[in-house]
Amino acid sequence: MNNLYDVLRRPLITEKTNYMNGELRQYVFEVAPNATKGLVQDAVETIFKVKVVRVNVINMPAKKKRNLRSRRITTRRSGYKKAIITLAPGDSIPVFEGVR
Question: How many domains does the structure of the chain reveal?
Answer without folding.
Answer: 1
